[in-house]
Amino acid sequence: MATLLRLAIATAVGAAVFTGAGVGVAFAFQPHMVSALLGLWRVQADSLHRHLTDGCPPAEVHDAVMADLRRAARLLDEGIGPWDRRRG
Predict the structure, then answer these.
(1) Of the candidates 33, 40, 1, which has an alpha carbon nearest to the alpha carbon of residue 14?
(2) pLDDT in tens, 10-22
């Protein structure tokens, strides 16, 4: 049951994200792409935990977490972006 729920959520999120980005719904059903995007939530959670645990001042936590997310997103873009452009 958890797998079906996770798949339904991933499909809905993927459709919304890819359609909003102007890429098209067809990409929303590429499981590896949806999983990669959903993985950014994990990056955010891990980053928050790490920076809050390390005693980072609250005023700096946001910037530190955003930097981690940007690095992860850049990796996705450089890895997925060229693949997307080759297909188009």
Answers:
(1) 33
(2) 667 666 666 655 6
